[in-house]
Amino acid sequence: MAFSVRALIADDDKASAKLVEVLLQKWGIEAVVAHDGLEALEQVMQPEPPSLLILDWEMPGYSGIELCQKIRQIDMANPPYIIICTARDSAEHIAEGLNQGANDFVTKPFNTQVLRARMEVGRRTLELQARLVDAMTRLDHLASYDELTGLLNRRALFERLHEDFSRAVRTESRLCFSVCDIDWFKRINDKYGHPAGDAILRQLGELLSQQLRPYDRIGRIGGEEFLLLFSVKDAGRAHKVLERIRVEIERFRFEFEGRVIPVTMSFGATFVIPDERVERVEDYFSHADQALYQSKEKGRNLVTFFDNCV
Ligand SMILES: [Mg+2]
């Protein structure tokens, strides 16, 4: 199916606007009409704005050129394709219009054939742009999320942790920072096979996501290692939350091809009162990791806090 665009016709000359509207209709392009620059800008600021703009040079409110300047200053993922229309066709005018951000130029009175061809160039350009934005969004997702569990990967997670800590400083919230690791994961892989291991990682990712709130952070930071960050009132409450998650995992029926596979997880954690030293994220990680080591040492399937292991 052809990529479809929606157009905006901005012209204070009502007859001229009507003429273009009728032509676009004939060519199967949906269009909205504005009769001055202010109305046109309003249309562009809508949540789903038209993407192909046909702007008259001289209009009350804002001129087509002023609109161009304004629109190009807005940070848009999908900037519109702008065609300026004018009776002035001197080289200086054409150059000025293009320099101010217009993509193309059409002189009045319109030559229908030329207008149609230029609209088609605009449509093709917008289609290419949309495909590019789409590919970039997909690449960004691939670069930030773990394919198996759909959770944030290590790099993306650590980028966001710095933001989380800055926000926690501003809102004076307290955080629990936990690193957790599936017990005897290698044995599970050896006994049930790697596809079973993958299935467990997926199910565990879902289970962890269900246990935390949507605004808490959760990511897969290594093979069978996860990181959790959530806001919490005090250390006692933080311990209760992790203990509840630990028990949920112990009780959960992890299944692969009809077989139930017992899984437990060890947790290391630290309770954090964030301050301005956001760079301490690495320290917290190291503290939680040391506590996790203690949980493993003490027999696994345990929650240990850093304060209790130094
Ligand atoms: Mg005019």
From TrEMBL:
Highest taxon in the source lineage: Bacteria
Enzyme class: transferase
Catalytic activity: 2 GTP = 3',3'-c-di-GMP + 2 diphosphate
Residues the record lists as 4-aspartylphosphate modifications: D56
UniProt entry keywords in alphabetical sequence: Phosphoprotein
Protein name: diguanylate cyclase
Ranges where the Response regulatory domain occurs: 6-123
Gene3D superfamilies the UniProt entry points to: 3.30.70.270, 3.40.50.2300
Domain annotation GGDEF: ranges: 173-308
An example Gene Ontology biological process: phosphorelay signal transduction system
Cofactor: Mg(2+)
GO molecular function, one term: diguanylate cyclase activity
InterPro entries (UniProt xref): CheY-like_superfamily (IPR011006), Diguanylate_Cyclase (IPR050469), GGDEF_dom (IPR000160), Nucleotide_cyclase (IPR029787), Rev_trsase/Diguanyl_cyclase (IPR043128), Sig_transdc_resp-reg_receiver (IPR001789)
EC number of the protein: 2.7.7.65
A GO CC term attached to the entry: plasma membrane
